[in-house]
Amino acid sequence: MWNGVMKSHRNAILLLVILTAPVQAQEVSRPQPRPASVDRQSPGTVQNGRDVGEGEVIRVTASLVSVPVSVMDRQGKYVVDLQQKDFRIYEDGVEQSITHFSNVDQPFSVVLLLDTSGSTTAFLTQMKEAAKSFVEQLRPVDAVQPVYFHGEIKPLTTKSISNPDLLKVAIDQISPGPLDMGTRLYDAVDFALSAQQAASGRKAVILFTDGENTWGKASMKSTLHQAEESDVIIYALQYGNPPAQKYLQQLAEKTGGRYLMAADANAIATSFGEIAAELRRQYVLGYQPTELAQQGLERKIRVKVRRPRVAVRARRSYTMNRHRESAN
Prior knowledge:
The chain is an alpha/beta fold. The protein contains 7 helices and 14 strands.
């Protein structure tokens, strides 16, 4: 018992080091984008037509498009034995040459974005338990930044971290927002996407919300456009009444993620588990478009797999970012 108390005490002390600010903090500063002159490439980037080694994770540059792909059979099981030759990818109907292929089970970075506005009170305990179950499935190479929001946006750590014990201590700090403070859903999505700009590897946002936005600086239109320009996959879990589901569905569709309803505790836990499994079982295809897209121009993407009776999920389009040199 004494050892358990000491362990909890050590975790609490370590958490204090990584906490962004006290819970009563008024606001967070939006991460500043890197200057356009900074090259955001990593060892996994395709340059001048070179192939990237299998298993490496790439960054997207102005001349490279990276597409995470999930493949499932009719029984709902992930297909994990595909090779590069099994995939074909098309942009605006024109087949592209795949210059990068990484297989499944790659590291990922996640912003866990949890809505704790007044309407979430009945779901808060289940949300925390599901979030802690999710971080228990992390590997040492994976990282999560938990953030909760209502009328304020409150990151619980200064950056994504990989220690499940510290993450669970952080998640326990989540508290519901005042009923009169409203919900800044669009600002929270904007913050999460911006926070993932500098992350490496596979990047995702897991958003748990009822879909209601009452005020804020960002808008539905601006965040949907930002999502389409990003290389981040968004998984949207909705609880409560479904009128706002169109926005959440669009976030998922534009980024190649999933929209899930989470009506009760079992559904919440199952949804978090499904997302963790999918993030570990994605392929990544990279190609250099035969015709470079102009900034702000949407390009349609279609991925096919040379295997019968499978379902393929990938983002359907990308837009060249107007503000920086990377896009997906």
